[in-house]
Amino acid sequence: MKLIRARDYDHMSRQAANIISAQVILKPDSVLGLATGSSPIGTYRQLIDWYRKGDIDFSQVRTVNLDEYVGLGPENVQSYAWFMRHNFFDHINLPIGNTNIPDGTNPDAAAECARYDRVIRGLGGIDLQLLGLGPNGHIGFNEPDEFFDKGTHRVALREATIQANKRFFDREEDVPRFAYTMGICDIMQASRVVMVVSGASKAAILREAFFGPVTPRVPASILQLHKHFTLVADEEALGEVAVSC
Predict the structure, then answer these.
(1) Region 127-135 average pLDDT
(2) Segment 81-128, tens digit of pLDDT
(3) Which of 40, 85, 161, 207 could form a disulfide with 157 if both were Cys (CB 3.0 to 4.6 A apart)?
(4) What's the pLDDT band for 245 if we cut at 50, 70, 90?
(5) 215 has which bridge partners?
(6) Mean residue pLDDT across the chain
(7) SS (H, E, C) the chain
(8) Which residues belong to the active site?
(9) What pLDDT, in 10s, does the model give residues 22-80?
């Protein structure tokens, strides 16, 4: 594991954007695995800024997103498809046909999960996967469990995840209880993984995930075994670990 210690959220976002931009510059047709939530928004904003300055070209990039809520279509403002368009895709020269997100409206979970796994395989795998860290250690929507789920699957969201995500909805009861998510195997097979973590609220779970044992009860802990994993975290998020970098 490579650890990059950032001063604050903005510095963390720039450090992660540096890694992603270098990936795209060196391999213009890179397959990027992308994440949603508040953690990567600053990274996307920095990449948009560099695109507008002519420093980076996304025209050949292909993307696969980690997850989508079951039951939400791409025009629903709470869907991750909408999130990605609003926060990233609509502001760069990435052809929308090059983007891939699970179809939350497909009621056939087995068919949708199999389809998404075929999409990832058809792209030749993921060159760089961007991740955030859930409050209970989840990555994507791979929740704490007794085993690591391998491929794309339909998951029942834990209460901690529902509570963390309810701020994005008008009412708690509006938060979907299920999601389609890329599996641990897909994430671990990415050539490179970059995680962004910010804030004191993530300090305890960061310590548990990356300075404790590897266990499916803390899904992110498996990233300790990835050959090219970079953790980009700010001072507050690293507040419970003793590191110098």
Answers:
(1) 97
(2) 999 999 999 999 999 999 999 999 999 999 999 999 999 999 999 999
(3) 161
(4) very low
(5) 218
(6) 95
(7) CEEEEECCHHHHHHHHHHHHHHHHHHCCCCEEEECCCCCCHHHHHHHHHHHHCCCCCCCCCEEEECEEECCCCCCCCCCHHHHHHHHCHHHCCCCHHHEECCCCCCCCHHHHHHHHHHHHHHCCCCCEEEECCCCCCCECCECCCCCCCCCCEEEECCHHHHHHHHHHCCCHHHCCCEEEECCHHHHHCCCEEEEEECCHHHHHHHHHHHCCCCECCEHHHHHHHCCCEEEEEECCCCCCCCCCC
(8) 67, 136, 138, 143
(9) 999 999 999 999 999 999 999 999 999 999 999 999 999 999 999 999 999 999 999 99
Token representation of residue 89: 């895709």
Burial class of residue 139, CB neighbours in 10 A (0-12, 13-18, 19+): buried
Q: How far lies 80's CA from each of 125, 146, 168, 187, 243, in Å?
A: 21, 27, 11, 18, 34
Go through the chain and tell me how many residues it has.
Answer: 245
CATH architecture of the domain covering 2-234: 3-Layer(aba) Sandwich (3.40)
CA 161 to centroid of chain Cα atoms: 14
144 and 106 in contact (C-beta within 8 Å)?
Answer: no
